[in-house]
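Board notes (copied after class):
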Amino acid sequence: MTTRRGFVQAAIAGLATPALSKFAAAEDAWPSRPIHALIPFSAGSSVDIVGRVVLAPLAQRLGQAVVVENRGGAGGTIGCAFVAQQPADGYTILVNASAHTSAPAIYPGAPYDVTRDFSGVIPFGSVPNVVIIAPSKGVRTLKDLVAAAKAGNMTFASAGVGSATHLAAERLRLSAGFNATHVPFKGGVEAITEVITGRVDFACMGVPSALPFIDDNELLALAVCTQKRTASLPDVATTIELGYPDSDYNYWMGMFVPAKTDRAILEKLRAETQKAMADPDTVEKLKPQGMEPMPLSPGEFDALVKKEVAENITLVKAAGIKVD
């Protein structure tokens, strides 16, 4: 005789089976055609270089072509808006950097919501920023820089308004309590060049871009803008170690999909991307980029994005940053 409890258990099992079958079917069927990967910055940018390094072996693992498109402009918001409007079927992915979380503060009118319209898949890793200055300036330590800035107005270069190089310098400036004039450039190469010549006083640039000039003694590394020291510059202290709390800036790169993408597809994409990044050839190609591990689950990645969006809104307001 079937009891009431037996009927309930049978009903639950009957409901669960189709759901599990649908979940498995979505994973098994995807991908059955090429994937469109959009990078919202120009070709040759750090996120473009890292993205292409990761996407090449990913395509091999998935057995489908991954077609990369660069669609830059407005701090990455043009490309992000495009991805947000695409079907959530796993065939359009976004490769972005920490500019993803500064966009709501810099471009509040962007036609998408970072936390609502995207789901994090996997971070590729983080790239440390380093405070650099030309030896000709006579500044030898970060405390020297802060003292000089407090004594008179200094200038700092960046790769553009709202970029990681801009916000990293602003966090340091606010923490240390000095004023400095922001001089934005179209990219990191131009910004570094101006610091080397001494036409601009200092910058907080990505370690991979600055390291060759540090090694050649054309630039001095005063501190790294991270919570822990970086393997690329093990003898250089962090800004926090040197007495400036909340002066670190996390510059990361990673992958996103439209928010309603089937969870089975997202998990498969994450697993295959993780394997692609662990491939020895990929690891070797990423070394020059100074990437440091950033192991986060999709849920943890989403939580980081939400936290950084709030922090960047506060930072931009405190720094008085405006986009012309």
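Comment from the instructor: Residues 1-17 have pLDDT under 50 and may be disordered. The longest strand covers residues 118-126.
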